[in-house]
Structures are given as C-alpha cells and as structure tokens.
C-alpha cells in the first residue's frame, strides 16, 4: 500500500502543470493587437479622453520593476470612471462603490504587441441586482466599446 501511495505521489509530480485561466470572470474581454505596447497605451489614453471618461489612476508594474533594476514586459492598469456615473452608482447602491473605478489592463506580449483585458461594466455591476446599476452599466458597456474601437482601429 505504501508503495502505491509513493508511486501516485511521484506520478502526480510528473503531470504537466495546469495553465492559469486568463479570464476567470464572466464578461472578460481580451483583445490582441499588433500595435507596439507604448503606442497602444498612448492611443488608449487618447480614446478614453475622447469618450469623456476620466483617468483616475494608472499602475505601471514595469515602471516599479525598473526602479529596482528589474526589466519586465510593459504592463499597465488604467483606472477610469466619471463623476456623473459615480453619483448614479452610489445612489443606486453604496455597496457597488467598491467597483469604481473600472479597470483596463494592458500587457506587452513577447512579440512586442499589446493585449488589452477588461471586464464589461455590465458584468462588474450585475451581482448587485439593482436595475439602476444595470442601466448605467449598459451605458458604460457602450462607452467601453467605443474606447476599444478607437484604440484598436
């Protein structure tokens, strides 16, 4: 019996590692673009502004890594929202406040192109089951679609 357990343990170590799920949440969109990372980020920022969304903050993992002497591929989280949506969101559900700002994640691929990942606002706010939030989220879905089309086009 002991031999069987040892064999099972050894065989389990020999199995290939399970790959991560790149889209663990419903409504996640992943867009691949051949645009260079820096150029795509610039285009995305312009598209966000052109669609009258506010850039609340940006997180830059490769910038932080560079500050400690480590080079990693380009990586940016761009957090966006707008005051009128914030007021509507909080009026509909104070608990939903944790969801704002909404995030766009840009990663540099090994070939230099950029990958954009984001969750549809309708999926972000759906768990609250508040009709006013659902209406607002559908409006945000349309804005996100315009931003993505402008940045990738």
CATH superfamily: TT1751-like domain
- Measure the end-to-end span: 62 Å
What structural category do the secondary elements indicate? alpha+beta
CATH class: Alpha Beta
Percent in strands: 15-25%
Please name the CATH topology.
TATA-Binding Protein
Shape: globular
CATH architecture: 2-Layer Sandwich
How many strands, what sense, and barrel or not for the largest sheet? 5 strands, antiparallel
Strand order of the largest sheet: 1-5-4-3-2
Helix content: 40-55%
Indicate how many domains the architecture comprises: 1
Assembly category: single chain
Order of helices and strands: HEHEHEHEEHH
> What are the low-pLDDT stretches, counting only 5+ consecutive residues below 50?
1-16
Q: Report the C-alpha radius of gyration, rounded.
A: 20 Å
How many helix segments? 6
Q: How many E-type strands?
A: 5
Could you tell me the mean pLDDT?
90
């Amino acid at each position: 019996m002991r031999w069987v357990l040892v064999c099972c343990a050894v065989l389990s170590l020999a199995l290939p590692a399970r790959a991560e799920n790149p889209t663990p949440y419903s409504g996640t969109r992943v867009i691949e673009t051949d645009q260079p990372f820096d150029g795509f980020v610039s285009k995305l920022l312009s598209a966000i502004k052109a669609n009258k969304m506010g850039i609340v903050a940006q997180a830059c993992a490769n910038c932080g890594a560079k500050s400690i002497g480590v080079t990693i591929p380009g990586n940016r989280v761009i957090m966006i929202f707008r005051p009128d949506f914030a007021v509507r969101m909080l009026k509909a559900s104070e608990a939903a406040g944790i969801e704002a700002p909404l995030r766009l994640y840009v990663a540099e691929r090994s070939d230099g192109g950029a990958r954009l990942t984001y969750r549809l606002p309708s999926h972000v706010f759906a768990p609250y089951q508040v009709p006013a939030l659902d209406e607002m989220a559908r409006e945000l879905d349309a804005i996100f679609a315009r931003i993505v089309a402008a940045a990738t086009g």
